Amino acid sequence: MAEWDELAEALADYTVSCNENERLRKMQRDWSRTLHFVCSDNDITFSMEVDRGEILSTPAGHVGIPDIVVTTHSETFCDMFWGDLNPVQKYLRGEITVKGSQEDVMRLDAISSVIWPDV
Amino acid sequence: MGSAEPARHGGASVLRRSVGTATATATSAGLAFAAIDYLGVVSVLAYAPGATAAVAIFVGGLLVLLVAGIFSELNGLYPTAAGIRLYLGRAVGSRTALSVTFTYMTTVVLVIAADAFLIGAAVRHVLHEPAALAYVWIAVLLGVALVANLRGVRLAGWVQTVVTYSVLSGTAVLSVVALFHVGGAFRHPFDLFGRGGFSGVQAVAFALFLYAAFEWVTTTAEEARTPKVITRALFIAPALIWLVSTLFALALAHLVPFARLHGSAYPQLLLGQAALGTVGELWMLALTVLTALNTFNGGFLVASRFIYAAAREGTLPRQFARLNLKAVPWLAVTTLAVGSAIVAAVVFATGQWLLLVSVGAAIESGIYGIASLCLLILRRRETRERPFRLVAGRPLAAFGAALFAVLFVATGFSDPTDARHFSVAPIGVIAVLGALATTYVLVFVPRLQAAAAARAATSRPRRRPGRPTGEGRGAAPATDSGAPSGA
């Protein structure tokens, strides 16, 4: 089970990877969303504010009204944000659950797909 | 960045944009009511002559309510866009799930191809152009759909709702006008087995096809306001389709002789012409073109995202997961358009459009049987609460599995061009599709996954600090255990 410090570290790395990827920024330039995350094993929650493809903040707790809500184990979130696992495999096995439009779910996965094409 | 203190989960978040019952119902009905449904009604009439078609469509509707109950419970257990893939994976294992889902997705290509062909043929007919120009119309329609999809153009939810209700109400109104038209006559009001001892069963099987794909609304479960929204849509949409299909079948039987419908790819235009002359014909042409908006929008979206997910998962070559700058899986979308164009051209050249109806109807019956089987198995394995629980679920699921297997056989060996004969063509096409899918899953998927695992192990070390390399990495092999990894 991952604690908030580990999640925050993973999120910081993910934010830098996303924001420094020019192709991703161009691809997501029309995508501004609020994301909520829920760790199903320890109930830790956090948010992500994306504005025109740029991750602005990843605060603890749920901030704003979400467009997408992602729920899974804290360890899975950590591995996902470090780029150490393929979120689609977990999603298709029902280990990651998502609330939100199919288009937004795909845009979210596109981030991992672009910044870590070999995973 | 994150704050020092974690926040704990206090309850469910409400989405900024979510789908309500009206939109979900429109999605369900819109996916089901494609241009090919007009031909589906003719196939029902082939086995249930005259007004008897209404009886077959009613019985088909009752069976669809059972399907709605089964999918509602499965969707309540796994409210995800992965839908039937996940139910099957949990019930019978991921390899079987993958084989069945690949075969199932071919119906999307068939429906897109059928709509392209039918709309092309209808436009050509109204404009009195040479037959060969239908190829041009097919290419134009699929080309427009391809470019719109590649540019990330999506129908807004409200547009999709308006289009669906316009098509349904427009078809119903013209059918009522036709029913009051002087000069028609009702024949064979209750002659369900008038075309042979098995014809009633085949008529019901083809009637089931009129509702086919209504269950795809479960792929929008993740954006539904509440789980009950999908359940309501699954029950309301078939009622709308029943009403419209019944009126259309009665109107056709009332005004247009079956001999004229028999060899036609545009029965709806014949009805429009018979009821209101040129105005009626243009009316039905407009509705036919409108159905393409739903088919091309929904069909391309569902199938291309399935291909994308399969490529990301490692069960299709990863080139299919490549995204363009609009975040669209361009190779998946292009492959779908090209595949549909080829199928549409073959259908046009051979004139075998009713074969598409038979293949689609058989695959849908098979999927409904498999979904019944999934519920039967998952009732034993999954004890957790779900928002909808089918009353007498086990006996009804067992009944469904047996009944839909019979209907699969009935349509698989049907020959709608001559109701008194049987044909192996539909079952042959399905057998080939199924064999290709199974061979691919058994032979090529393990190779793709081995290559992906090797790539993941050698391409770069694990990035997360403090964890050994290889932990949690690599492609998950498809197994037939049915259990999720780590369970």
Q: What name does CATH use for the topology of chain B?
A: Amino acid/polyamine transporter I
Distance between the termini of chain B: 33 Å
Give the end-to-end Cα distance of chain A, rounded to a whole number of Å: 22 Å
Low-confidence stretches of chain A: none
Quaternary organization? heterodimer
Name the structural class of chain B. Answer: mainly alpha
Q: Write out the CATH superfamily name of chain B.
A: Amino acid/polyamine transporter I
The domain count of chain B comes to 1
Order of helices and strands of chain A: HHEEEEHHEH
> Architecture of chain A, according to CATH?
2-Layer Sandwich
Tell me roughly what share of residues is in helical segments of chain B.
55-70%
**Helix content range of the residues of chain A, please?**
40-55%
* Number of domains as seen in the coordinates of chain A: 1
Question: What's this entry about, in short?
Answer:
The complex is a heterodimer of chains A (119) and B (487). Chain A contains five helices and five strands.
Descriptive overview:
The complex is a heterodimer of chains A (119) and B (487). Chain A has 119 residues and is of the alpha+beta class. Chain A has a single domain (4-114), classed as Nonspecific Lipid-transfer Protein, Chain A (2-Layer Sandwich). Helices cover 43% and strands 23% of the residues of chain A. Chain A contains five helices and five strands, in the order ααββββααβα. Chain A has helices at 4-19, 22-27, 74-82, 87-92, 102-115, and strands at 33-39, 44-51, 54-57, 68-72, 97-99. In chain A, strands 3-2-1-4-5 form a five-stranded mixed β-sheet. The two termini of chain A are 22 Å apart. By secondary structure, chain B is mostly helical. Chain B has 15 helices and one strand. Chain B has helices at residues 21-32, 36-47, 52-77, 83-92, 94-126, 133-150, 157-179, 199-210, 227-255, 258-262, 267-313, 330-350, 353-381, 393-412, 425-459; one strand at 7-8. In chain B, α5 packs across α6 (133-150), α5 (94-126) packs across α12 and α8 (199-210) packs across α14 (393-412). The two termini of chain B are 33 Å apart.
